Amino acid sequence: MRITYFSNSQKFLYDFQHIIRAFYPSAEVKFGHGGDIHFEAYFEEMKVVLKIQTQHKTVQKEFVLVSDEHESKRIFGRNLYDLLKDETKRELPWGILTGIRPTKIVYPLLEQGLNDEQIYNFLQKEYYISDKKSKLLLKVAKNEMDILNKLESSSACLYIGIPICPTKCLYCSFSCHEITRQVKSLIGMYTDSLICELEKTYQKIEENKNRIVAIYFGGGSPAVLGIENIKKIFTNLFENLERKHIQEITFEAGRPDTIDEKLLQYLSEINQDLNVRLCINPQTSNDNTLKIIGRNHSFEDIKRAFAQAYKYSFKNINSDVILGLPGEDENDYKRTIDDVLKLSPASITVHTLSIKRASLLRFKWNEYKFMDEETVNNLLDWTQYILEEHGYIPYYMYRQKNMIGNFENVGYCKRGFEGLYNVMIMQEKHNIYACGAKAVSKFVYEGDRIERVFNPADIKLYISRMLSVDV
Ligand code: SF4
């Protein structure tokens, strides 16, 4: 199906497009005219005329905006939603909410001292968020706030990106390099480049009087650097950062084929006085799906990696799973959650599949069967129920574009194992220093103004910039 939308103003264009997309996830939605369904918005000072044209009928609504820009945006969103709801006979659990950080809208309400009932009413009346999602949202916002309230304003995070993986996952949209012979030959230089950038970053951290409280090794599979390079980076970090302020070091050992005894032995030494959060990510316990999504391992490998990690006394292990993987049904997903629970990770992050433009899946999605939105929504509710039954709490949440059914990703954890970095990066209240190819630093200024600084995505370009050499 082809859908077009047109507006005589730049106002609310993002919401205009995203709310339409949320109702028609598999349609092609473009700015312009024509197509099977056409939407138009005409702004004339505070008055708006919103129109939907199909082959059989035209329906239009008129409404008036107010002086407050945020409120006007919601008025526009609700009127568009009403038109779409009548046309499709559907409702969306997240209503008109298009942002990726939903808890951010709850913070000011909590700060104003509103009680739970008043907050639910606001979310449902202003954003059309369903009763269940409003309750989940408030729970997560309160947990996030507890974590943030314990931080000093000088607290900051350090991200170290290694965008290299053994193979590329079907759904991956990151600029992640597969470890070819050529990429392997660059690993030494990449490590030197990281150290070079870290040295410059320490100066900035000092100038800004920041304290690094959470460090995150991610971007792909950091273990591909090899133990000697990893040791070099940690040695440099500990020579330059005050160990006593570091509350968490996350190491993405997501792919079990990159974990070995030497790595675990080394990280376990750090784990003796610091909190190392290890990520071992099955995504699914179904070996057939693991093949389809291009991960070069089985669920047995995940179990082995957990056993090794427990042998080295790691307690803070996170496991990522994905709901809605190609070819999977309700039973596959429920089995995955059961299998992961048997491994007793300290935290489980539940993602809903997102089909990104830059992923291979974007070009192959019609080769597979996917769960429908209602099933995904029911499974998200089931997940919350079952994980809470097992003592996990939802502590952080975000949404992505192009997720199946426009749903959410939720981090659950046993109390005391909240991922500090995850909460800080979502709430954008603290500086994030990011090193490595494709890394994005974020600096927060007064009035919540945010400046982002982007590194080149290509590792060769990154190396040549950092080391001033031709690669
Ligand atoms: S493990 Fe993550 S970064 Fe690596 S290919 Fe898969 S999705 Fe991409």
UniProtKB/TrEMBL annotation:
Gene3D superfamilies attached here?
Answer: tm_1862 like domain
Tell me which domain of life the UniProt entry assigns to the organism this sequence originates from.
Bacteria
GO MF annotation list:
4 iron, 4 sulfur cluster binding; catalytic activity
Report domain Radical SAM core positions: 150-389
CC terms in the record's Gene Ontology section:
cytoplasm
Q: Which NCBIfam families match?
A: PRK08207.2-4, rSAM_HemZ
Task: Tell me what organism the protein belongs to.
Answer: Caldicellulosiruptor acetigenus (strain ATCC 700853 / DSM 12137 / I77R1B)
Q: Name one GO biological process term.
A: porphyrin-containing compound biosynthetic process
Q: What is this protein called?
A: Radical SAM domain protein
- TM spans, by residue? none
